Fold this sequence. Notes:
By secondary structure, the protein is of the alpha/beta class. The chain has helices at residues 2-14, 48-51, 68-80, 96-105, 122-125, 137-147, 168-171, 177-186, 204-207, 223-226, 230-248, 288-298, 357-366, 381-392, 412-427; strands at residues 19-20, 26-31, 85-90, 115-120, 156-157, 160-165, 191-195, 212-214, 253-254, 257-258, 309-312, 333-334, 351-352, 378-379. The longest helix is centred in the middle third of the chain and has 19 residues, at 230-248.
Amino acid sequence: xxxxxxxxxxxxxxxxxxxxxxxxxxxxxxxxxxxxxxxxxxxxxxxxxxxxxxxxxxxxxxxxxxxxxxxxxxxxxxxxxxxxxxxxxxxxxxxxxxxxxxxxxxxxxxxxxxxxxxxxxxxxxxxxxxxxxxxxxxxxxxxxxxxxxxxxxxxxxxxxxxxxxxxxxxxxxxxxxxxxxxxxxxxxxxxxxxxxxxxxxxxxxxxxxxxxxxxxxxxxxxxxxxxxxxxxxxxxxxxxxxxxxxxxxxxxxxxxxxxxxxxxxxxxxxxxxxxxxxxxxxxxxxxxxxxxxxxxxxxxxxxxxxxxxxxxxxxxxxxxxxxxxxxxxxxxxxxxxxxxxxxxxxxxxxxxxxxxxxxxxxxxxxxxxxxxxxxxxxxxxxxxxxxxxxxxxxxxxxxxxxxxxxxxxxxxxxxxxxxxxxxxxxxxx
Length: 429
């Protein structure tokens, strides 16, 4: 106990308060500001979770994105998840999403806790895949430049405003060269992230048009074929390895991507669902698939050429059940739904009212600082409490991250290391 008392005294002397450390990894999540009443607003009735028996609702209920308390809650949840920015779905000047984002989210008192980028919904702005109309492109970006890119909380890379363009692989790979050249000429400062990666054969010639490349659709190139299985993760790893090599060869960064699961049968038919556990492991539980995806595949692919960004599909796309936004967490697990057959929506897969689970998983798997023993994205007194308990537990089976000096034991040397890590964050030395 003398060691413990000495250690705790040192903690008190050196570490009197908490300090939050920004991480090298920059986490972004696709965000949908489209829920609420009125023209253009979306409801929750066409979501999988609303068809489950019993229902599994968002923790905030059937909310309105423009509500002040909802915005504050979403920002707080995102900070707790170690999300640094939202890529916000945008459907044109004066659209529902435009009004909510401009007039409510960016004007909110808590807006400065995150950064914000535009997800340009090309499918709604450029028309059909086979015969696109690019006439809206320059006016749309002129509007964005005027109303968004100069905002103090707008996301910038090296001073350049960042915009995500959906489905560039459709609208700009084999067509649209002139429209893209005009866009670049009119707005040379833009940092354009292209939704461009799909499949195992991504080419450097595709990537060369962009500042960084990523993919929105994780399901379509992995889980749609393999389900929520290890094979799906192996395919994702293969896709990311190839895409990064291709992009880096032309000095373009890859932004790796992941999602917790997928089920769009509440809003459309035809796709098989992908649950949030490993279907090929009978012992697997809710969240295992997402945790493994992040830990083993996505986080290791963070690319310095893209500022170590990674993207999560999504924060709150409930229609496709890719959301990590918390649920109420009160109704347990079910495979039943309100369809005539009782399982038409779930297809017999289990769905859990998961609460804050995915917020916790994302934080734990993207906060990897030495000394953060409670995975809170900061080093504070709670980490010293965890350390003290592990020091006293001679049979600790989960103490590797407390052995900071890597000598095989948890002891006084590790305490000194822990205090040093705290001081580095607190003072910069």
